[in-house]
Design a protein that fits this description.
Chain lengths: ~220, ~220
DNA sequence: TTATTTTATGAACAATGTTCAGTATTTTTA
DNA sequence: TAAAAATACTGAACATTGTTCATAAAATAA
């Protein structure tokens, strides 16, 4: 009884890994039952013994990919000074992750979820992925009084939507500027959002001091 | 020589109209050569005498749809008071247009443009569509001193990206809130962006007075 | 070992994009 | 007007992809 379970999970894992590899290396347009099964070392028909349909399989990748995204952000920001600087670096690392794997962006934000079993959990992870990968830093900024707790939810959603909108235009090639320009615009808009909420009441009088740090930004 | 041209354009028009009708009524997933040709009254093979491929045909719709979007916004905002109020109403009307026709949103922002002939012009129209439908109002606000000319480009891009990000999440069902909540969040974020740029130097001291008008907002 | 259950598979079907050779229609020419 | 030529239209056919199903292969139980 238990062995059966283990073996089934193992084979599901082969298909899952094949799908993830394919999506990352060839993009979403190469993800189809025959290619997946080839990589997994099975016939395409076997896939249907383990997954309801290809949609089910593909959206299962979301959980793993979110984890990879989280780790990518952590590794690329750990040497940054805590606070606004690391927050900004986290947002950039998040963007970089999807620029590196446009197929994952399509999967996360554009692909029709169809009848995926737990749509709810997946969409929750997806839509708050940026918030989540920045969570520690949001908390840090609030705890240090860099950001005000009443404002932080609005700021989060501003940054979430502005970042995703910009990313969508870039990844789907609705804009033609190069990567460096993407990052410049990302910083500009991130700073504008953070700036608008500097505590203390007066313009430029708060503790965020986004402008100063802006000067030293250099795109990779 | 001239008649041939006219006739060819006429038949292209039948296919184009069929595609537009189909996209608006059934969505992008029903847009295929056989359905289009059925509606146009021709065989699916005939389509290839007039268009390179289906992608070419579908992206030709962008120009017409942009015009419809523009008109939709104009008609739904003409009774609004000029300035920030009409600006906000324009943004909402823009969002409403895509909520009504999600297939057009997919076409504009998500579909792979492939080898579409003038990618350049189409993507320009697409990515600046929100800016364009609000152009008169942006100009009005600047001319009346409601917004400062140096800030307006940054504000435009903030609103553009934040609006598209929110719309993407909503239309692709990555969030589960109802339409009324979408509009609430749209207003909240629009106001936050506009507020951050009130002229005069001090918080709440500028001429935008977004807060006051926020009170009277009622979602349809 | 033999019977039964489980697992894996290719054949086959449906939907869609595309090409092409042949048919129908229109236009040109004699 | 009638034959010839050019043009327009079409279904058959092929490729790709998702899915189902009968059956072969393998594992398990008797």
């Amino acid at each position: 009884m238990k062995n059966k379970e283990i073996q089934e999970q193992r084979i599901k894992g082969y298909f899952l890994q094949a799908t993830k590899d394919l999506l990352k290396s060839e993009g979403l347009q190469s993800v189809n039952v025959r290619n997946i099964a080839d990589r997994a070392g099975y016939s395409y028909a076997t896939l249907y013994n383990y997954f309801k349909d290809i949609n089910d399989l593909v959206f299962l990748c979301v959980y793993d990919f979110y984890g990879e995204c989280e780790q990518h952000v952590r590794e690329h920001t750990k040497r940054q000074e805590r606070g606004i600087k690391r927050l900004r670096a986290s947002i950039r690392a998040y963007v970089d992750f999807f620029v590196q794997y446009p197929g994952i962006f399509s999967l996360f934000f554009m692909e029709n979820l169809g009848s995926f079993k737990d749509k709810g959990r997946a969409t929750e992870i997806i839509s708050f992925s940026l918030d989540k990968v920045c969570e520690e830093e949001w908390n840090y900024c609030v705890s240090k009084g860099i950001l005000q707790v009443e404002q932080v939810e609005l700021i989060k959603s501003q940054i979430r939507h502005a970042t995703l909108g910009l990313l969508m235009l870039y990844i789907n090639q609705r804009v033609s500027f190069p990567y460096t320009e993407l990052i410049n615009r990302l910083y500009l808009q991130t700073n504008a959002i953070l700036e608008s909420c500097s505590p203390g009441g007066g313009r430029d009088g708060g503790g965020v001091s986004v402008h100063n740090s802006l000067i030293s930004i250099k795109v990779k």
